[in-house]
Amino acid sequence: MSVETLPLLLKELRLASLLPHWEALAEKAREQHWPMERYLAELCQLELSSREQKRLQRGLKEATLPIGKYLDTYDFNEVEGLSKEQVWHLAEHAQWLKTGDNILLFGASGLGKTHIAAGLGYRLVEQGHRVKFMSASLLVQQLQKAKEELRLSEALVKLDKFAVLILDDLGYVQKSTEETSVLFELIAHRYERHSLIITSNQSFEDWDKLFSDTVMTVAAIDRLIHHAKILQCKGESYRRKEAQNKLN
């Protein structure tokens, strides 16, 4: 078989990412007297690296995470009550996903809850987990529309493909029977199956402002905290600090 057919064979085998590299790598192999096995191993490594990069790009596009909010750019020194070691442990050791554990981030506005949630999301995507970041209000509105169209169950099942749903700013969900109902159904549907990361500027004692029914409030909290890591951010808003520093 002629070597000229190799590009066609690579395309047919869906190894097109090797097309720009195989000739240069073959020349290097001849110059350095590589055995055939070494050349083949190098080609395989190139293909694996290409596939991993494409997977990461797909995962990040799908996740819709806020740009630039990585854990290594978060200043833990500006926030009280938050353990850097605990957050990084959750990011690097994702066994909690297997049991559908949740991460609940509480604190006042401007303390970086969204930054931490997104940073966790980035690390999980890098590790191969499917993640989706959305404002809680937007997701609830979408689920409410699905319920009106009698396809809420279908919408909830579609979300099962994500190992983690990041719901940002839960405290801004409108207190209405329709919205709180679908929010509860989402929490109940994912309970002990798939994980949620939730940020909220309202602590549990204020969640009666989210749910119109006390029984529903208690049931939602009970399901969320049964398998949960609760992270409390305290301190002065660093957004406010930055604004003050600019004025000084």
What attributes characterize this protein structure?
248 residues; alpha/beta; five-stranded parallel β-sheet; 10 helices; 5 strands; 50% helix; elongated
Short description:
This protein is 50% helix and 11% strand. With 248 residues, the protein is of the alpha/beta class.
The residue-averaged pLDDT reads: 89
Individual helix count: 10
| Residue windows where pLDDT falls under 50 for at least 5 positions | none
Give the ordered list of helices and strands: HHHHEHEHHEHEHEH
Assign an overall shape: elongated
Strand order of the largest sheet: 2-3-4-1-5
Q: Give the helix proportion (percent range).
A: 40-55%
How many beta-strand runs?
5
Instruction: Please outline the major beta sheet.
Output: 5 strands, parallel
Rg of Cα set? 24 Å
Distance between the termini: 75 Å
What is the beta-strand fraction? 5-15%
Helix/strand-derived category reads alpha/beta
Structure notes:
It is elongated, with a radius of gyration of 24 Å. The longest helix has 28 residues, at 36-63. The protein is built from ten helices and five strands; from the N terminus they run H-H-H-H-E-H-E-H-H-E-H-E-H-E-H. Helix 8 links the parallel strand 3 and strand 4 (195-200). The protein is α/β, with parallel strands linked by helices. It starts with 5 loop residues before the first helix and ends with a helix.
Secondary structure elements and their pairing?
Layout: H1 6-12, H2 22-31, H3 36-63, H4 84-92, E1 102-107, H5 113-126, E2 131-135, H6 136-148, H7 152-158, E3 164-168, H8 177-190, E4 195-200, H9 214-226, E5 228-233, H10 238-247
Parallel strand pairs: 1-4, 1-5, 2-3, 3-4
Helix pairs in contact: 2-3, 3-5, 4-5, 6-7, 6-8, 8-9
